[in-house]
TrEMBL record:
This is Uncharacterized protein. It comes from Ricinus communis (Castor bean). InterPro entries: At1g61320/At1g61330-like, F-box-like_dom_sf, F-box_AtFBL13-like, F-box_dom, LRR_At1g61320_AtMIF1, LRR_dom_sf. Residues 146-230, 232-316 form the At1g61320/AtMIF1 LRR domain. It holds the Pfam family F-box. Residues 12-50 form the F-box domain. SUPFAM superfamilies: F-box domain (SSF81383), RNI-like (SSF52047).
Length: 516
């Protein structure tokens, strides 16, 4: 039965305006305006919505700015603004006045969150960095002087003056990306909890007076000249998360920072910090520590952190062929270690180097090795016979390979030489995770027909493996591995095979049957 429109109850109009504003806050401003057709109350609520969110898409800059100005002109006078978000990817200097007007309007109405992205999407138009510098939108000084902004995100701005000083009693979040013009950044903000500086051209010095800073995130440009002094973080006793990329720091500087003086520090990630040599880290609350692309001069990393959950380190071999193995004594009972292996050579020198590095890590909860190819981990047979395995105590080994595996039995055999008595071996390739789970008999078998560990102090998996479970291998791989283990271990009683993979298999695989 059709009900006349005049008798239909307008339930949307019964909603309180703060609820309507909350709904509109999830929409771009142009869509918020379109809600005016939904109900009588929606017709006017968008005019006082505290969120202004526009993204240039589908029309030119002039038309875009005209739409923004029209939107602002129709807003209710004196309405406070919670958030201003603008994305203008094709900025030109002729747009300055109109952009300034939008920003001024927001500041005059006590805006709290400012998110401005003026990065140019067509940098090829600017043949030199100098030309690109002058194409950036000059940041109005009144933005940094605002007394209402609590969250400030800027992308694609020309900062002025070059010695940038930021003081605010309310700012809690500062993010600068792809900005230029800064030679130094000095921040004096009592409430600031996060600083994010990424791909900004120029900063050589950073000074912080931020007692409540919890997160500092810096990613430098190629050839970054930023050098942090001993006093950079001296006031930041609340620091929890530190990420430094392409920054000049010394061993002593890092050891002083990752110390009990900064008791709340939990996560440290360093990348491209190639001045580090020998580190001795001691911290009672440290949970995550990563060294990525820092191994150019790195000789030793010793960490004493009982709560350390994850240690990750990039291992580069090839640039210096006579490079000595990095010593990695990590003193933590539950640590997961991740090694990112990068080698241009798979000679015996590489495998000797790798073995010496791994020899420090047998005690960890899990060891994960990430490499390009299976060849990086297939240790030659003659080396397996003459050298002791480096990971006798390791229980869980995980390997992630970027390229397809073509020598599965030899690859698995090499992994079981590296870690000769595991509980699990997991192989990740092409987003597929395959695993081997081992169960052993309580009494080790030392009968004479197993010669693999002759005269070696510790026996391998072959001597007491009782049960094996293979997960997510294809039927062909399962048959190959079944044959491999039966030949290698005549005492193996049971082999289970399960496939929980959600990957859609090719037709020729689907027709295979797992018959042993």
């Amino acid at each position: 039965m059709l009900v006349p429109m005049e008798n239909v109850e307008d339930l949307l109009s019964e909603l309180h305006e703060p609820i309507l504003h909350h709904i509109m806050s999830f929409l771009p401003s142009k869509d918020a305006v379109r809600t005016s057709v939904l109900s009588t109350k929606f017709k006017y609520s968008w005019q006082s919505c505290p969120t202004i969110d526009f993204k240039l898409k589908g029309y030119g800059t002039d038309e875009f700015l005209s739409n923004v100005h029209d939107f602002i002109g129709r807003r209710t006078l004196g309405t406070a603004i919670g958030k201003l978000k603008l994305r203008v990817p094709s900025y030109s200097e002729t747009s300055n006045n109109r952009l300034d007007a939008v920003i001024d309007y927001a500041i005059q109405n006590f805006v709290k969150e400012v998110d401005l992205d003026f990065r140019n999407d067509i940098p090829q138009l600017y043949p030199t960095m100098k030309d690109l510098y002058f194409s950036y939108y000059p940041l109005p000084s009144r933005v940094l002087a605002s007394k209402s902004i609590t969250i400030l995100k800027l992308k694609g701005f020309k900062m002025a003056p070059r010695d940038l000083i930021l003081t605010s009693s309310v700012l809690r979040y500062l993010s600068l990306e792809h900005c230029t013009g800064m030679e130094s950044l000095k921040v004096f903000c009592d409430q600031l909890s996060l600083i994010h500086v990424e791909s900004c051209v120029g900063p050589k010095q950073i000074e912080l007076v931020t007692p409540y800073l919890e997160t500092f995130y810096f990613i430098g440009e190629e050839g970054s000249q930023l050098e942090l002094s001993e006093d950079t973080f001296s006031t930041c006793k609340s620091l929890k998360h530190l990420n430094l990329d392409r920054v000049k720091i010394t061993d002593q500087w890092l050891e002083n920072l990752v110390s009990e003086d900064f008791a709340f520090l939990e996560n440290v990630r360093l990348s491209g910090c190639n001045t580090l040599k020998k580190l001795m880290i001691s911290h009672s609350n440290l949970k995550y520590f990563e060294l990525d692309q820092c191994s150019e001069q790195l000789e030793e990393v010793e960490i004493d952190a009982r709560k350390l959950d994850t240690f990750a380190c990039g291992i580069n071999y090839g640039a210096v062929m006579d490079k000595q193995p990095i010593c990695l004594p990590i003193h933590s009972p539950l640590v997961k270690v991740i090694l990112l292996l990068d080698t241009s050579s798979t000679t015996s020198n590489w495998f000797s180097f790798l073995r010496d590095v791994l020899s420090f890590l047998g005690h960890c909860r899990e060891l994960k090795l990430v490499c390009k190819s299976e060849e990086d981990l297939i240790v030659p047979e003659d080396m397996r016979g003459s050298l002791l395995s480096p990971l006798h105590d390791l229980r869980n080994l995980k390997v992630e390979i970027n390229n397809p595996i073509s020598q599965l039995p030899d690859f698995v055999g090499s992994l079981l030489w590296l870690a000769p008595h595991p509980d699990t071996v997991t192989i990740v390739c092409d987003s597929e995770e395959k695993s081997l789970k081992f169960k052993y008999s309580l009494v080790k078998n030392e009968v004479k027909d197993v010669f693999c560990c002759h005269l070696k102090p510790i026996l391998c998996w072959r001597h007491n493996l009782k049960e094996l479970t293979m997960e997510n291998f294809t039927c062909l791989e399962t048959r190959i591995m079944h044959k491999f283990f039966k030949v290698q271990d005549m005492r193996l009683e049971t082999i289970h095979s399960t496939n929980k993979s959600k990957r859609k298999r090719p037709k020729h695989e689907a027709e295979e049957f797992c018959i042993y």
